[in-house]
Amino acid sequence: YSNRGVLYKEKKQWELALADYNKAIEINPQDAGAYNNRGLLYQEKKQWELALADYKKAIDLNPQLAIAYYNRGLLYQKQKKYNLALADFNKILQLASPEYPDGYFGRGMVYALMGEKQKAIPDLQRAAQLFKSQGKTADYEQAMNLLKSLQ
Prior knowledge:
By secondary structure, the chain is mainly α.
């Protein structure tokens, strides 16, 4: 159900996706990934509190689930809760391999939004380098564009 929910979400069939995520959680209430995916759906629908609750549940179930910290960090960033966002992006960099560019990119974005260019630039440079080496062209270009705007 969780995988089908992802497909429905990609097709913007929100209600079908939500029904599948709910069913996946009903079948396996310990499925951290299903909570994370449902959180993404709620975030897409601008239901921030429901999204935060699902990310928290995903993290409670699996404290090693870096993607849940990333998604929650992005939501905190949107809400201008920069210190909470930084905490989540820092946690990603502790949990995930140092080759995980999203943690650097997220933290660099938050530093940029806070006006802390000197902290943002090294993180964005590292993210860009990793995105490029991993063949993630669109992400690389996004990091480079943000870097250019800071210099």
